[in-house]
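so my prof wants the structure for this chain in the tokens format not the other one, which i didnt know existed until like an hour ago. anyway here's the sequence
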Amino acid sequence: MLSTTARTTVRRGAKRARTDRADLYAVLDAGLVCHLGVLVDGSPRVIPTAYGRLGDTLYVHGSTGAASLRAALGHPVCVTVTHLDGLVLARSAFHHSVNYRSAMAYGLARIVEDDAERLDGLRAIVEQLTPGQWEAVRAPHRKELAKTAVLALPLDEASVKVRQGPPVDDEEDYDLPIWAGVLPLTMAWGAPEPDPRLSPGISVPDHIGHRG
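here's what i got, hopefully its the right format
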């Protein structure tokens, strides 16, 4: 079960809340980009970034010189992931909506100091974006790791909210001669585009080609 705190209790549209931890994992594992909310010099900042999950820990990375990552250390942060699944077109402007899946996590971010965990976190981020890619490429060397900060956020305090299904109109509006329904939205990968400097004879690997 997910935590129930003042920050994770869904009040608006409470019936859309999901309380199973598996729902949290499903939303996170299906995503590619999260939004990390931090305070930088007292001003709120939201940073879109790649992420990866291992168990109940979410990993993000960035430059060791990034002010936003330095500001996150030891301070409360918020991470969100959202999937837009469709436009919900109602008979009235007021009842238009969207079908979506969203997750929000709060916690104290920590810098990952352990070398093995840093590599595991980076692997999780790469594999989140392209499963199978970590084993196919050169591993980061020491200088690259020295320039890379990896943050870990525990998923102890999180909430999930989902909307699915058709529009919900006022009862008196159902007889109006207006089309209503859902316009589904899906994301699809295009065909892989080779690097112009790719050496001759290198074909698209299976773990990439099957996504095109």
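also thought this was worth mentioning. Residues 14-209 form a domain with the Pnp Oxidase; Chain A fold (CATH 2.30.110.10).
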